[in-house]
Amino acid sequence: MNYLKKIFFSTGCLLASVSLITSCNNGYEEYDMVDPPRPISSDTQAFPGYFVKVDGTGSGTSWDDAMSGKQFFTMLANNSFKQGADIYLAAGIYKVGTSSSDFVSVSSGVNIHGGYDPASTGYVTAISYPSSFETIISGDINEDGIANQGDARLMEVTTTIPVSFYGITFKGGYIATATHSEASGANLSVRSGINVLKGGALNMNYCNIEGCISDIGANGDAGGAALLISGGVVKMNKCIIKDNQSNNRGGAIRMIISQAHDTKLYMNNSLLTHNGIKGDFGGTIQVSGSCDIFMNNCTLVDNYAKYGGAGINTSGKLVLMNSTLVNNLCTDGSNGHELRCEGKNNWFLMNNIILETAGKSNTGNPSLCLNGNDKIIVSGGYNLISFVGGTGTFARQGTDKIGITYNKVFGSASLADNDGYPKTLALPNGRYAAAPLNELQSYASKNLLIYNVGIDQRGFNRKSQKTCPGAYEYVGENDGKTALDGTLPDLNVNNGQW
Question: What pLDDT, on the 0 to 100 scale, is given for residue 481?
Answer without folding.
Answer: 54
